[in-house]
Every structure is written in C-alpha cells, then in structure tokens.
UniProtKB/TrEMBL annotation:
One of its GO terms (molecular function) is methylmalonyl-CoA epimerase activity. This is VOC domain-containing protein. The keyword Cytoplasm does not apply. InterPro entries: Glyas_Bleomycin-R_OHBP_Dase, Glyas_Fos-R_dOase_dom, Glyoxalase_1_CS, MMCE/EMCE_epimerase, VOC_core. Residues 33-155 form the VOC domain.
C-alpha cells in the first residue's frame, strides 16, 4: 500500500464514487463482527507460541493430525471460543495473495501504545505505527512468524448504515503514535490516560 499519498482527483473520480455508492442490501439477519479467522501456518508450535506469548491468546481446543491434517489449534482472546484458528502444514510462509491483514481492536488508545512497547520487547518488528487514512484508526502493524500481517488498533470511525464516511480532507495519516495523538482528525479524542507512554 502506498503510504503518505492521498490522490484527491482519483478519490473524486467516477470509478471510486461508484464503489462508494454501494449500500448493503436488506437481509433477514445482521452481521455484527468478524467471528474468527483461520490461518495456515508452517510450524504450528511456533505459531501457537507467538499468538499466546506475543498477543496473549489462550488455546481453547486442538485437533490431532487424525482429525485435521497438520493439526488445528483454536485460540481465544475474548469470550468467543476462538477468534483465530491455526492449521499446520503450510509449505512455506504467507505470500499475502489472498489475505492482506487481520486486525484486532483494543478499547483504549493507551493500549495501542502499550502494544507497541510489548511488541518491541518481544523482538517483533513493527512495520507501521500511526494513523491510517480511511477509517482514521490508530494502529501498530507487524507480522507473525509465517508473515501474516497483523494490526492492533483503536479509534476506527463508527458509522450508521446510511451515514457517509469521513471525507478525505479530514484524514490525518501519520507515521508515529505520538504524531497520531498530536494530529487528531475532527471528533477523535486522542488524550492519553497515561501520557508517560509517549516516546519523545
């Protein structure tokens, strides 16, 4: 993804405007969240260690090879039985052709700062920190041992079904958590409960 670019002309063009005009159809059900993601991994023990040690997930269940080739491990981070499941046997790392990334929401901006510090202590390379453009979430992004891209975020814009998204003129893409706090878009309260989390 090109970073630091906002192409206002293309954003206002007919192709993008046509895409943005698509509205969800009425259905006899309401989707409320992404329930879980299942990932193929090359070393199931290494991945279970990463998701438990680095992201704090707990194993709920596991299938042996006889039930799922490569074994399968169900991991939770909320009251759901599993939010992530891992299946062993991938031949090599993720090629990022089908899934771009998986994102985990936290309740406070302080937790994003704490996540950055924790990932650094765990030796996990962070390849993005700051605020995204569309959606305005403040995030840290990194990879698991197989190269799956992961995001921990706070502050994603909330919209009703018929509400228009924040216009591009209000986007405030920045490349550090500190800049995200200092350069908030309209309506986003970026006050830290613990200002000592900042790195100056």
């Amino acid at each position: 993804m090109a970073r630091g670019i906002v192409d206002f002309d293309a954003l206002k063009g007919p192709e993008i405007q046509k895409l943005k005009s698509v509205k969800g159809k009425d259905t006899p059900f309401v989707l409320t969240k992404i329930g879980h993601v299942v990932l193929k991994v090359s070393d199931i023990d290494r991945s279970v260690d990463f998701y438990s040690r680095v992201l704090g997930m707990t194993v709920s269940d596991a299938y042996p090879e006889s039930m799922m080739p490569g074994k399968m491990v169900f991991m939770r981070f909320s009251s759901d039985h599993h939010g992530v499941a891992l299946i062993g046997g991938a031949s090599d790392g993720a090629k990022m052709q089908e899934m771009h990334h998986m994102a985990f929401e936290v309740d406070t901006i302080d937790e994003v700062f704490r996540a950055r510090d924790h990932l650094t202590r765990e030796g996990v390379k962070i390849f993005f920190q700051g605020r995204r453009r569309a959606g305005a979430q403040i995030a840290v992004e990194f990879q698991d041992p197989d190269g799956h891209c992961l995001e921990i975020y706070w502050g994603l814009d909330q919209l009703t079904k018929d509400e228009a998204a924040r216009p591009p003129e209000e986007w405030r893409e920045v490349f550090s958590l500190e800049d995200a706090v200092d350069n908030a878009p309209p309506g986003q309260d970026t006050a830290l409960a613990d200002p000592s989390l900042r790195k100056e």
